[in-house]
Write a structure and sequence with these properties.
alpha/beta, Adenoviral Proteinase, Chain, 5-stranded mixed sheet, Papain-like_cys_pep_sf, protease, elongated, thiol protease, hydrolase, 7 strands, two-stranded antiparallel ribbon, about 425 residues, 12 helices
């Protein structure tokens, strides 16, 4: 069964002209049958000016000069068209903003007077007072960099750097003490000069002298007997007070002669063996006049070069050396003690003598060292030898227990000689070396 085909009619259209915009008045529109906005608008009938002629079996003609938009359905110019199809708004110039009025200038503040500035309580001072009231207020680490150490208040905690500061402060003080220590030499070879055969014979005769015969005399005019020198020349014997006082007198006499010191203003002095024990037991009042009798009392003590103070405690002899001009204190103990208590007692005497001139921070306890004894009997010999070594500028540690026998003999020989002169001069005439 075949299909029936209706014959197609040939349509012919004239070439369409360029489509104009919906808003172009060139479009020919028909009147709307209804003008009520609420009713649905009806599409108007358009009458194209020219139609495109299209052959059924041929290509369309007239498309060459035609805009492609001509085939589009034209917009419907209804009452809602102006709302449905946006258009560019007309240009409106900007409205000028009103000018702002100038702000009024602040009134000038009068400059306060200098007295008023001093009365202002700044916030830093207020905070400092608050911290001071705290039981453990903060402490600034800046205090570690002050030239002089500032004390930390009792109600504050020390800085974290305090331990390091204390360590460096001790090192600095140690360097200062080393600079203030007197320079002393260590002899090469034998530090003690040997006795001549002649003096060996004299010592033998002194040991054989009668009990009532004086074998030597001190510079103070006190006689020394055989019973006195026996305590020094016999091995392992304990030196008595007479030998100690007499020999320290020889050392002071040597220093005064060496420096041309007059007796009216002595710069070298040695207290006797009772000075320290009296100071220890009775305080400064017990020895208040001792320095005046020696012509070194009061503020004139600061002009003294060296003061020797023998110390006898618990059957042991030690030596204190005070240098008022240098503000130093040395303690020599052949058993190795530092002598903190002895130095404290001597500072009490210095405080009483100098009065307002005494400043504790000026006085330095030097860490001096003595040669060590190897028994319980030679402490007195080390005391006198240390005093002589300091006087002649020899390091006290240059001698030791091996020299004790010779040192005992030389102490007695120098007492009999009446001083450190002649054959007992510390400086050798041939070599120039300084020996004990």
């Amino acid at each position: 069964m075949g299909f029936f085909h209706w014959p197609r009619r040939k349509r012919s259209r004239s070439p369409a002209k360029r489509k104009e915009s919906v808003f172009n008045p060139g479009w020919r529109t028909l009147a709307h049958p209804r003008s009520v906005p609420g009713d649905s608008p009806e599409s108007p009938t358009l009458e194209p000016a020219d139609a495109i002629i299209e052959d059924e079996y041929g290509l369309p003609k007239g498309w060459e000069s035609m805009d492609l938009d001509a085939c589009a359905t034209p917009a419907l110019p209804t009452e809602l068209g102006e709302h449905l199809h946006p258009r560019r708004l007309p240009y409106l110039p900007p409205t000028p903003s009103p000018k702002r009025a100038a702000s009024p200038r602040p009134p000038k503040i009068a400059k306060p007077a200098q007295d008023e500035l001093m009365d202002v309580d700044d916030p830093w001072a207020q905070q400092a007072r608050k911290d001071a009231r705290l039981p453990h207020g903060p402490v600034s680490a800046v205090q570690l960099f002050y030239a002089a150490k500032r004390p930390i208040p009792a109600n504050r905690m020390a800085s974290w750097y305090e331990a390091e500061f204390q360590k460096r402060e001790k090192e600095r003080l140690a360097r200062e003490r080393d600079l203030r220590r007197p320079s002393r030499v260590v002899p090469r070879g034998q530090p003690v000069r040997l006795l001549t055969p002649e003096w060996a014979v004299k010592l033998q005769r002194a040991m054989q002298a009668g009990q009532g015969n004086a074998v030597a005399r001190s510079l103070a005019g006190d006689d020394l007997y055989q019973r006195d020198i026996v305590t020094c020349i016999r091995p392992m014997a304990w030196l008595n007070d007479e030998i100690i006082n007499a020999y320290l007198g020889l050392v002071v006499h040597y220093l005064r002669q060496l420096n041309g010191n007059l007796n009216d203003r002595p710069t070298f002095h040695a207290f006797n063996t009772f000075f320290y024990s009296t100071l220890r037991d009775k305080g400064y009042q017990g020895v208040r006049r001792w320095a005046n009798r020696a012509k070194i009392g009061g503020e004139s003590l600061l002009n003294v070069d060296t003061v020797f103070i023998p110390v006898h405690e618990s059957s042991h002899w030690t030596l204190l050396v005070v240098r008022p001009m240098e503000r130093t204190i040395e303690y020599f103990d052949s058993l190795g003690s530092r002598g903190a208590r002895q130095v404290r007692n001597v500072k009490e005497w210095l405080r009483g003598e100098l009065g307002s001139q005494y400043k504790d921070e000026e006085w330095v306890h030097l860490p001096s060292v003595s040669s060590q004894q190897d028994n319980g009997s030679d402490c007195g010999v080390f005391l006198l030898t240390n005093a002589k070594a300091i006087a002649v500028g020899v390091e006290p540690t240059s001698i030791g227990p091996v020299h004790i026998t010779l040192l005992r003999q030389k102490i007695v020989a120098e007492l009999i000689n009446g001083g450190l002169h002649g054959e007992f001069s510390p400086q050798d005439m041939k070599t120039g070396a300084v020996l004990l």
